[in-house]
Amino acid sequence: MRPDHNPTIGRVVATEAMPSGTHQFQFWTATDTDLGIGAIVRVNDDSGRIVYAVVTDGRSYSDLATPLHDVVAAEGDPAAKRGPTRRTEVRLWTGAVLRQEPEEPLQPVPLAAVSLATKEDVEFALRMDSYVRSETAGGIPIGIYTGGGMSAPVYLDADFLLGPESAHLNISGVSGLATKTSAVEFFLTSMFQTFPAHKGSIAAVCINVKGPDLCFLDQPGELTDVDREMYGQLGIDPRPFEHVCYHAPFKADGVNLNTLRSHHELAKSVQPLVWGLREVLDYHEVLLNRDDIDAKSDAFIDFLTDRVVEKDFTDEWGTTHRVCTFSDLERLFRSIFEGLEATGRSDMWRTHHIATIRKVRNRLLNISTRCKGLVTDDGSVSDLPFGSFEDRSVHVVDVAGMDQLAQDLVFTRVVSKLREHLERRDLGVECVIVFVDELNKYAPGDGPDTYVRKMLLDISERGRYLGLVLFGAQQFRSQVHRRVVGNAGTTLYGRMDMDELATPGYQVLSPATKIKLATLPKGELMIRHPHFTQPVFVRFPRPPILPGPVGVQKFPPAKEVDFEDAVVMQLSTLDRRILPGRVKELIVGHRDDAVRRALLATRRAQPDDALAFFEAALGTPVAREQVTGSVGKTTRLKQVEDPYAS
Amino acid sequence: MVTRSAGHRIRDAILAANGKVGGSSVLTHVPQPLTRPFGSAEQLEHECVEAVAVGEPKASPRGTGFLDGIQRYSVVGRFGLVPVVRGYVAAAVLGRRNENLCVRHQVSEEFVATSIGRLSGEQLRELENTRLPLYDSGGDDREHPILDMHLAARVVEDRRERAEQRVILSYLRDRPEGWLVVDGSIAPYLAEDGASRILGLIKSHETQFLEGEDLRTAMTLPVGHRSSVFARRTNGRDKAYTWYLRLWPWDDRGLLHGLVRLELAPVDEAVVQASEISAWMLSERSPLSAPDSRWDRLIYPMRQVESYLRAQVGEWL
After folding, report:
1. Quick check: A82 and B286 CB within 8 A?
2. Is residue B186 part of a domain?
3. Which residues of A touch B60 (CB under 8 A)?
4. What is the mean pLDDT of residues A550-568?
5. What is the b/e burial string over B154-168, where b = at least 16 CB atoms within 10 angstroms of the residue's CB?
6. Of A514, A468, A502, residue with least CA distance to A487
7. Domain that includes residue B59, residue range
8. Does residue A57 sit in the same domain as residue A118?
9. Which ipTM was obtained for this model?
């Protein structure tokens, strides 16, 4: 029993036409009340029953029977002086029940006095007492509920956010106003600081698909006194993330990083994301669409994967291949074509038709062109530290500057690798949160059934058992596959578009709640969580990190420079003492891909003496052979029309 | 040739003879006989009754209260033919605070009314055990079911008037300044201290104090006009000063539409104050008290007193 409550502000009313139910009731208040949509109230019945509810609708009307009576009273003049008396007016509110005490038997809400909820009432009404105050407490602060001059922290249950009970978080809202990214940044801060150690270790992987939003997670941002007060109330230290690692592919030149976080002061924390043939071949389904891949092509790619790649493979003409890069693969293809041409045997090679081989060759070799910067053909690989993820670490994979195909590849491979390691329990952490914006692009409600969507569906439905948790954001929830959003245990809503609110997914919300959502100011969210029987509105502080646009002004991206200068610049970020002239001397005579490989190795190792390491990795330059005129005998290839050439 | 309806032909005839068309809606019942159709008047302001323009509506002074009372009764049972009536009366004064009406004073009473003289000792004891006030409705030895009900109703009415009187006295005592507008005549309160601050608002015109051209002038007042102030006898000795006021245009609606009579205690200032007080009442036309059928004469605060008292009645509703 919770006897202490605020002063009475209203009274429950019920009529035959508008009865008081077990889930909803009406009450009236004075016209000058502080009450509003989203406020939490408490009904105090003399019998001992207490009902907690959230206000979902409000109406006001007077005893005016028809507007015509007002016209008559004003004698048809809207500007006529108003009478000395105000009409009797009522503020009638609708409350949606959050919790009843006692919970059984469940009964209609009694016709009793209504008061604003106290801080303790809010905790009890939202059932937070079961996970905030228990021995195995796992409450994660999500924001502050405010109502009637009172504020109270609101917590989410870690077990229902990261599994195993339920998992995943989805946030919707219009761009620019809904503060989706800010909300996720704040919430990750909150989670990293408050997630109890006894529940395991966590890390986050954020896929940055646009702009600089996630590029400065380790830099402190400006906060107002109000923000600091909110942090204090929530028990969170407003500081940026301590363990952040950035991963970005190169630009097409292979040395300049394709990220907005390329300022020389920050570049050291950005690791190149570089993949080779093996990394790509495992996810060829992402890169090759349904029209590209038929059974025959699929079979040939499987053959390459199983029998050829990274193995010693001897062809029918006696040449032994070891295919580790796209260049090696190209050599193999050439060997096959030339061998078939020279022997004139047939159009088949190891049961694969030459047209199928040509098709696969075109598609695979095109990948290195379409994903240039990410995919290299020199065999060097730089990846996320799968297997050595640290507790409370954030890995930002910046693919904002890449085209859609490359973004799909990165997303798919990163998530698949996370899943593989989590299944084997060797990721380094027990739970990893993957944050993806623009979920409507990756898991649309309609359109083709892509590999990316299938993977997201799989995470949504089974990820919680593995510790793979999806934090998804999108403008329009209705455009995301309903099984993806439906499996999100916790849903946040920022400011919403009215057209979006008119879609069937929002029918459960009252018109007043929809209006509030459509006009929600920055820094406010509506939350649905398994413990909350009704949506709850909360405010949250600005994240304690540098906002993307401000960060770009403070740390302008480095200008794109030529190859030699880019090498110098990158080595300088590792060791400021390095002299540019010395680096340029070292790379003279070396092939570009050799320099890239050495640079990548140096960055990955981050040695004390970066220049020495680089020099060692570079090795001795190989003299280039000057070719003059035609050498040897040229073989004319058989003219076969390639219908798949692009 | 088109034959005009009887109604049109009658209207044509009225207009042709300089009459004025317009009146009531269709009626079916013959009204009850008037108990006191005529009274006498003594001109105070003018020799003959004149129509005086009141001027712009003006809000009544701060602190003005509005009084009304209600009564409810029902026959709960009978001892033989003697009805046992349960009665409820209430009265309240509402005043304005920031343009909102709120309760200043109120009283209510629930009681039993019956012909005590016809009850046995045991019957009387049982009624007394109800711990409700018991009032005698009287009656002759000869029983008459309808007459007995009329007598019980008289008791209820009397209790209501007393309740109103109590509220008025409380109000006048607690508030040395400020007007009190009461529903009906001020005659019952003329003897009270502070009676000069009571304004009676009479909506029914059963008793006519004027006659001839004076009556015609009063009954055909244009909107926003009042009649000259005149005195009327309230009983054998006392007088009240009174005048008519037209709140709403009566064209096409009947003579009494929007016509009220205001009453003051017989003080010298009454004649001087008549126009100003009338302007107060004109300002009370808004908000309209519709959908009450008496909206043309019932001012909104009075209706709200009624609404408030009715809401208080609870199970009697």
Report:
1. yes
2. yes
3. 84
4. 86
5. ebbeebbbbbbbebb
6. A468
7. 36-64+178-285
8. yes
9. 0.80
